[in-house]
Amino acid sequence: MAGPHSARYGAPMDERPYLLLTPGPLTTTPTVKRAMLTDLSTWDRDYADNVQSVRARAVGGFEDPGVRPLLPAHARSPTITSSQLPETIAFAELYLALEQRGFVIYPGKVPEAETCRLGHIGDPFPADVDRLMGAFAEALTELRA
Q1: What is the number of domains present in the chain?
Q2: Which residue pairs from 115-118 have beta carbons closer than 8 angstroms and sit at least 24 positions apart in sequence?
Q3: Is residue 4 part of a domain?
Q4: Which residues have CB under 8 Å from 143's CB, separation 6+?
Q5: Domain that holds residue 133
Q6: What is the DSSP string of the chain?
Q7: Could you tell me if residue 8 is inside a domain?
């Protein structure tokens, strides 16, 4: 069965081979639901260390001068990184550019600015975030052209 956005984005959502990097959608595809029902660990030490490593890479990976963390370090979530986008980049354009590269990000919830959120719980690993940051840099370059 095709996902709810399949007509807009091409392939049914439950058939896309991308890495979910959102804090968890309210509605989802069968593939994502199955992944969310799998407990890969229950916050044991190794898992907590991995989440923090992924978080550090996500925060530090936004090397683009126009992208900056939305909140000061002491106020940031341990599980979601929110960043403000450059004024010339719309979230919807960035979303589509990253989806074409195999990643899904989540919109920010700040009405005053274009923001995005990256979830770093679940099954992403440092290498996944490194790939995301490369795709993020490519997408920003493409959108600015």
Answers
A1: 1
A2: 115/70, 115/82, 115/83, 115/84, 115/85, 115/91, 116/82, 116/83, 116/85, 116/91, 117/22, 117/23, 117/80, 117/81, 117/82, 117/83, 118/21, 118/22, 118/58, 118/80, 118/81, 118/83
A3: no
A4: 88, 89, 93, 94, 97
A5: 23-144
A6: ---TTHHHHSS-GGG---EE-SS--SS--HHHHHHHT--S-SS-HHHHHHHHHHHHHHHHH--STT-EESS-GGG--SSEEEEEPPTT--HHHHHHHHHTTTEE-EE---TTS-EEEEE--SS--HHHHHHHHHHHHHHHHHHH-
A7: no
Residue pLDDT, tens place only, 43-64: 677 777 877 888 888 777 666 6
8 A C-beta contact, residue 4 and residue 27? yes
CATH of the domain at 80: 3.90.1150.10
User: Of 2-6, 107-111, 119-123, 131-135, which range is least confident?
Assistant: 2-6
CA 11, CA 39: separation in Å to the nearest integer? 27
The gap from C-alpha 71 to its chain's centroid, in whole angstroms, comes to 17
